[in-house]
Specification:
alpha/beta; TIM Barrel; 15 helices; 17 strands; 44% helix; 20% strand; globular; binds iron/sulfur cluster
């Protein structure tokens, strides 16, 4: 049985100005108790799924900033993960903040079976990094990625952002030159989203956030989506580009309807067609594990319509797209009977390519993804 594990580490040194992820700064005093609770959840819940389904194919440790944990705590957590889930996973990724890693930390990760690192770099311009609240500099990012390579990691991803305040196309071009020089096999790109409750959200409400114009942001998007394939990074999902053979297996499993177990505060799980979410507060999570281990709640029970919509949304994020065969297998429904009209209309607008296999977004469809996704909502 193919399945994956997601482990959430909700600590960050400082909250980035755009970030609304479940992550907290200034709670270092809870790290030890949190890792203890997490190890407990791995030993009980993790073991129960391991016994049922065998070894997971992939593990992804994200956050937050996993590498904000002190080395001994990370080592302890990796030891328990190894004891319960085994070793030799197809992929075991840890998200890294370049401001929190060094050679010793990489050794701990390698010793714990980690074989892929994802660096949140976002930009290689110091001015931009400061403006978005990152804790690291351009040089620290370069040293971190090179340090990981020296430590023996070859499967490395770098995140870049576009549409940042004060960012010019030339900044992005310089960042791409830098990533290329680092020769990493995977790049993720994200356009800035201004979310309520973040520093940028507040500045925006006050009319004090100056962003690139829509045309400038669009030019940055166009540059990335054209330049990266020219450099040998094929797009395999809305935000993800990789050299052939280096696509993230864990991420792909999310879009392919593979079940996953989420461990830690705010972690989501997808098990037997149902979605669960753990309590987001670190304190509530620790208390819940200590009391009775119950930290999950069932998110809305999906109707058949919701399950089909969600399946379509996730599949359409990928360049492989939505398969007629897989859809029919999963829902015992013909894709055309459910989405035939929508597919024909979107194909007419040049947003969707439809053939015997199924359908997938065109380049234009990826660019205006929301237009297409909205149409896949069933009445
Ligand atoms: S390091 Fe990542 S998770 Fe932490 S605040 Fe910044 S963007 Fe959010």
């Amino acid at each position: 049985m193919q399945w994956g594990v997601y482990i959430h580490i909700p600590f960050c040194r400082q909250k980035c100005f755009y970030c609304d992820f479940p992550s907290y700064a200034g709670q270092e005093n809870l790290m030890e108790a949190y890792v203890e609770a997490l190890c407990q959840q791995v030993r009980i819940q993790g073991l129960s799924y391991r016994q049922r389904w065998g070894r997971p194919a992939t593990i992804y440790m994200g956050g937050g900033t996993p590498t904000a944990l002190p080395r001994p705590l990370m080592a302890r957590l990796l030891t328990v993960v190894g004891e319960i889930f085994g070793e030799g996973f197809d992929e075991f990724t840890v998200e890294c903040n370049p401001g929190t890693v060094d050679a010793d930390f990489f050794q701990v990760l390698r010793g714990g079976g980690v074989n892929r690192l994802s660096f949140g770099v976002q930009s290689f311009q110091d001015e931009l990094l400061q403006r978005i609240g990152r804790i690291h500099s351009k040089d620290e990012a370069i040293v971190a990625v090179e340090g990981a390579q020296k430590a023996g990691f070859s499967n490395i991803s770098v995140d870049l952002m576009y549409g940042l305040p004060g960012q010019r196309l030339s900044d992005l071009q310089a960042s791409v030159v830098q990533v290329q020089a680092l020769a990493v096999p995977h790049i993720s790109i994200y356009g800035l989203q201004v979310e309520a409750g973040t520093v940028f959200g507040k500045l925006s409400e006050q009319g004090r956030l100056v962003l690139p114009t829509e045309e400038e942001s669009e030019a940055m998007y166009d540059y990335m989506t054209t330049k990266l394939p020219q450099l040998g990074y094929e797009r395999y999902e809305v935000s993800n580009f990789a050299r052939r053979g280096w696509a993230s297996r864990h991420n792909q499993s999310y879009w392919q309807d593979v079940p996953y177990l989420g461990l830690g505060a705010a972690a989501h799980s997808y098990l037997a067609g149902k979605r669960y979410a753990a309590v987001a507060s670190i304190g509530d999570y620790i208390a819940g594990i200590e009391e009775n281990g119950e930290v999950w709640s069932l998110e809305e029970e999906p109707t058949l319509e919701h399950a089909m919509e969600e399946f379509a949304f996730l599949a359409l994020r990928t360049t492989t797209g939505l398969s007629r065969r897989v859809f029919a297998q999963k829902f015992q429904r013909n894709l055309d009977a459910v989405y035939g009209k929508v597919m024909a209309e979107l194909a007419q607008k040049g947003l969707l390519q439809v053939d015997d296999e199924g359908c997938r977004l065109t380049e234009k469809g990826f660019k205006y993804g929301n237009l297409a996704f909205t149409e896949f909502i069933l009445d």
